Amino acid sequence: MLNILVCVSGGGTNLQAIIDRINDGTIRNAKIVRVISNNKDAYALERAKNAGIDGICVSPKDYENRDKFNEAFLAKVKEAKPDLIVLAGFLVVIPKIMIDEYAGKIINIHPSLIPSFCGTGYYGLKVHEAALERGVKVTGATVHFVDEGTDTGPIILQKAVYIEKGDTPKVLQQRVMEEAEWQILPKAIDMIANGEL
Ligand code: GRF
Known about the structure:
CATH class: Alpha Beta
Low-confidence stretches: none
Structural class: alpha/beta
Bound molecules: 5-O-phosphono-beta-D-ribofuranosylamine
Number of domains: 1
């Protein structure tokens, strides 16, 4: 059984996809043991509660400096004894101490086809605004391992999504989530949980 810890910051639709795929058996041999949010108002925490999953908030605002936050955050991660850490819409930079402690065991979902539209400053709606601005015909999502860089770790899965005439950033974000993110993140977790990577 793969014990998963999911880190969230916002709506939690990717978390919900993982919960739903575990419940319907699409993701085999895995269990979410804890959800951690840096934002106490994240709806993702509500989703965890509704699913009976331990959900906690560890907010940088509650600590005098980043190092103290990083220590507290890592302690709450270790306490859950995860085999895999999933960053699902998580907007906090993962501290080096955690990257070292969980090398090769942290994955992230990014809403573009890396190496396009990724790196510092490319998150959430900004990614889709940049894709529309550039005029690309195809975008999508990427699941990758997390290393010390931003969106630079080895790529695990990608899925392409066509941009359609008249797309706004919001409409495109929703399509990329529905057609790509909510498909490839559960798939990657199932592959890891069953030694198929
Ligand atoms: C989405 O744009 C996702 O691509 C990115 O974070 C945003 C919110 O995701 N990773 P969620 O609804 O909180 O899962």
